[in-house]
Design brief:
Number of helices: 13
Shape: elongated
Number of strands: 11
Strand content: 15-25%
Largest sheet: 9 strands, mixed
Structural class: alpha/beta
Length: 313
């Protein structure tokens, strides 16, 4: 390859392979094909006159030269990306996208968005509010900038980082006046007498629930309705004897207003970390970084006496 022919694609492929450890994984994240990434790495090494990766049985690992190059390229590319983001914000529409799970979109995101829009009124915010699977894939593929919600399962955290902001319990709710409302020391078999509304399989909290129920001696509830619609669950629990399994934040308002009650079951046993999930090593736009900071500020405010999170602690 002729001198001085190193292109942006070579550097972006280099960074992706360094972060993910293989050309195939880097290609998946970048939305291209493995041969293209491998060719770019080969061309880069030919231009440099030295390999930057050690080829091992487990994948591609940065060697000493590659490690040194990575420190410069990652910083430089981060500055370039931030420059592009700033220019896009000046010339046209800037957009921040995130997946935000229902337990936080009701109680924390409104305040964070209000703070953010006071500084970035022209930035478009796009939220994917779902408890469905594939959230890690959305992050790695760049379809969203970050995630705000419960910690993903360990097998889905490869290439991602998590910043815990608080802990939140998963709760079994029933309508006020339900036969189990006010009963003490309930067992999983007491709950199994009623219909249970729970998230669909392959969701974060469904996996937690399944493991927990098995640990209590029940292979699964007998009468189940599966849904990721929190609106359905909230409406259905009011008109039936069904038990709804959700994060506390999803029903916080109804609980405070006395429309639903929390069953005396699994109290303190189903608690999980809630926070921000981002792709490891990938820089974010100034607007994205600011929205994440607004979320942190909103969380800190809700930790004060009388706040939603203070009630969890």
């Amino acid at each position: 390859m002729p001198a001085n022919r190193i292109r942006m694609r070579h550097l972006r492929c280099f960074l992706a392979v360094a972060r993910h450890g293989s050309a195939s994984r880097a290609a998946e994240v970048m939305g291209t094909v493995q041969p293209s990434v491998s060719r770019s790495i080969r061309e880069l090494e030919e231009e440099l006159g030295s390999p930057v990766f050690d080829r091992t049985a487990s994948g591609l690992v940065l060697n000493a030269a590659g490690t040194r190059l990575f420190s410069y390229v990652s910083n430089g590319m981060g500055m370039v990306d931030r420059g592009f983001d700033a220019l896009r914000g000046e010339l046209g529409e800037e957009r921040v996208s995130a997946y935000v799970l229902p337990n936080v979109i009701r109680v924390l995101m409104p305040g964070a968005v209000r703070r953010f829009k006071a500084e970035y009124p022209r930035t478009v915010l796009s939220f994917l509010a779902t408890t469905g699977g594939g959230l890690h894939e959305n992050l790695r593929a760049g379809r969203v900038d970050f995630g705000f919600g419960r910690l993903l399962a360990p097998e889905h955290m490869d290439g991602l980082t998590f910043e815990q902001l608080f802990s939140e319990p998963l709760v079994f709710f029933v309508r006020a006046g339900h036969p189990l409302a006010g009963e003490r020391n309930l067992t999983v078999h007491d709950l199994d007498r009623f219909e249970v509304v729970m998230p669909i399989p392959d969701t974060i909290i469904r996996a937690e629930l399944d493991r927990f129920v098995i640990s209590k001696g029940l292979s699964g509830f007998s009468n189940v309705t599966e849904t990721i619609s929190f609106e359905f669950a909230r409406s259905y629990v009011e008109m039936s004897d069904a038990i709804v399994f959700q994060p506390l934040g999803a029903m916080h308002r109804e609980l405070a207003e006395g429309e639903v009650v929390r069953l005396d079951f699994a109290v303190g046993e189903l608690v999980g970390a809630v926070g921000l999930t981002t792709p490891a090593g990938r820089s974010v736009s100034a607007a994205t970084a600011r929205l994440m900071e607004m979320i942190r500020l909103e969380v800190e405010e809700k930790k004060r006496p009388g706040g939603y999170i203070a009630e969890l602690l």
